[in-house]
Write a sequence for this structure.
């Protein structure tokens, strides 16, 4: 018996065939080609599943379940893709039904951030932590929450949208339409935007004169001692800490896994984050709390998709 796991991003599609214990055996990678629209992407998914099964020497009828993670918002209980920003044309698409029909394998979708959390919980840095939150800070900011060792997705799969907690009234505009939410301030996009806005008025800064400063440029300049770059990361870290403190007070987790490209800025971001997290949460809520880096890297979502397929197959057998 086997399982199929899929990680569908705006740029990359990855499909894996795993054995019954969830160990990845074969991985196929393809560009998503999201700009070519919904049907094209669905055809690519189905083709990539076929290729992965063939490369693995596994027949579709030997596969118990297929799990697929994709950017939110998605509604896992309804099997619906609602409207992910980086998958144009996907609006209220019943992807579970479409993939089940096209592959002959019972298929189950979920939010990619939630599946990354599940992956780290089952096979990575969060094993054994029953109350845990996985926070990713990169282009966007998202989180997956496990309570009592189980994924907590909310009524319609939207739980964990920590990036869209509003922290600054009339702050910068987010892609979601809100102003001053965490993602608009502390994501890679938010850090780059701050550099773009502040650098022209700061002639002494290394960021001054850069046409399209990226978050990495800010990190590089801050490491070299640039004052403006350092203050941008401090500001991002401070707001990230307020959101983390809020999560700590709300969920009282034992463990927070903190990952994503922006976290690689290290202490320039993490020191102010820690300080403001401690200032915005109760000491009692932080008792025993550990904050760790992810162990599975880029594979967390793919491993999580396999673990989700295993979970759903188990439920299907019991019901
Ligand atoms: Zn937002």
């Amino acid at each position: 018996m086997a399982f199929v796991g899929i990680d569908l991003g705006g740029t990359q599609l990855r499909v894996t065939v795993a054995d019954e214990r969830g160990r990845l055996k074969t991985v196929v990678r393809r560009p998503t080609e999201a700009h070519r629209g919904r049907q094209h992407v669905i055809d690519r998914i189905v083709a990539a599943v076929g290729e992965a099964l063939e490369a693995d020497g596994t027949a579709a009828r030997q596969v118990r379940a297929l799990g697929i993670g994709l950017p939110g918002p998605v509604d896992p209980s309804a099997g619906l893709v609602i409207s992910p920003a980086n998958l144009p044309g996907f609006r209220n698409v019943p992807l579970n039904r479409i993939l089940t029909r096209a592959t002959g394998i019972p298929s189950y979708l979920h939010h990619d951030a939630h599946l990354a959390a599940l992956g780290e919980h089952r096979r990575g840095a969060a094993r054994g932590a029953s109350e845990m939150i996985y926070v990713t800070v990169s282009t966007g900011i998202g989180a997956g929450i496990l309570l009592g060792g189980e994924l907590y997705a909310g009524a319609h799969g939207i739980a964990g949208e920590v990036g869209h907690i509003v922290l600054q009234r009339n702050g910068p505009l987010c892609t979601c339409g809100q102003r001053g939410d965490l993602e608009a301030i502390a994501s890679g996009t938010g850090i780059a935007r701050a550099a773009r806005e502040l650098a022209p008025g700061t002639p002494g800064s290394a960021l001054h004169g850069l046409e399209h400063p990226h978050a990495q440029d800010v990190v590089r300049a801050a490491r070299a001692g640039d004052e403006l770059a350092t203050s941008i990361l401090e500001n991002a870290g401070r707001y990230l800490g307020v959101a983390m403190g809020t999560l700590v007070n709300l969920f009282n987790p034992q463990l927070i896994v903190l990952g994503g490209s922006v976290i690689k800025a290290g202490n320039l971001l993490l020191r102010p984050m820690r300080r403001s997290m401690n200032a915005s949460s109760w000491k009692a809520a932080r008792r025993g709390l550990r904050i760790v880096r992810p162990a599975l890297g880029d594979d967390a979502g793919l491993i999580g998709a396999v673990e989700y397929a295993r979970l759903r197959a188990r439920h299907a057998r019991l019901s």
Q: What stands out?
A: Residues 245 and 279 are 8 Å apart (CA to CA). The pocket of zinc ion is lined by residues 164, 174, 176, 178, 181, 183 (CB under 6 Å).
